[in-house]
Predict the 3D structure of the following.
Amino acid sequence: MFYEPRLGHGLPHDPFKAIIAPRPIGWISTLDGAGRPNLAPYSFFNAVHSRPPMLAFTSESMKHSAANAIASGEFVFNLSTRPLFEAMNISSGALGDGENEFAAAGLEAAPCRIVKAPRVAVAPASMECKVVHSMRLHDVDGAALEGWIIIGQVVGVHIDPAYLRDGRFDTAAAQSLARCGYRDYAAVTEVFEALRPTDAGAYAPGQPDR
């Protein structure tokens, strides 16, 4: 089938988010202007640069996380994992202004080193970020949308040593979560390594993965 999004897809459910999957979940913690913590997951999230490291998340309306990050100039990414799924899911609820998602989800907040926003203490990894760009999105006709993208430079990284193996972060051991569209999720439980053609001549087409 083929469809133009502006004309509709004719399916009972929109396939867009299921096709663009899996998507890492940005579990974003911030502080509001009164110093109250906020925590919410965003599936329109990813790394966008490595030197220096930068992360971006998109909010399809000016929700608490986006407003807090833009106003304070900082946010924290917390790694969401299979053991933390229930807490992450609870934190997605529509709580009112000033209500504490950490408390609602039964999570302990831990202080950060550089930014003022707290992090999820039990997360296998967290990244402290300073906002470098924030922008309201526009469509191809130039019309302003309700969506906002916030890009943060990573200024501090917390890693639980239990998830380090031979100097590498063990994604499978952490069971990192991903959003797969609709109400579907996936957890990383297995990974494989593959060489690139530029890996010092060690790659040849047709070779088994090693």
Q: What stands out?
A: The longest strand covers residues 144-159. The domain at 16-187 is CATH 2.30.110.10 (Pnp Oxidase; Chain A). The longest helix spans residues 64-72.
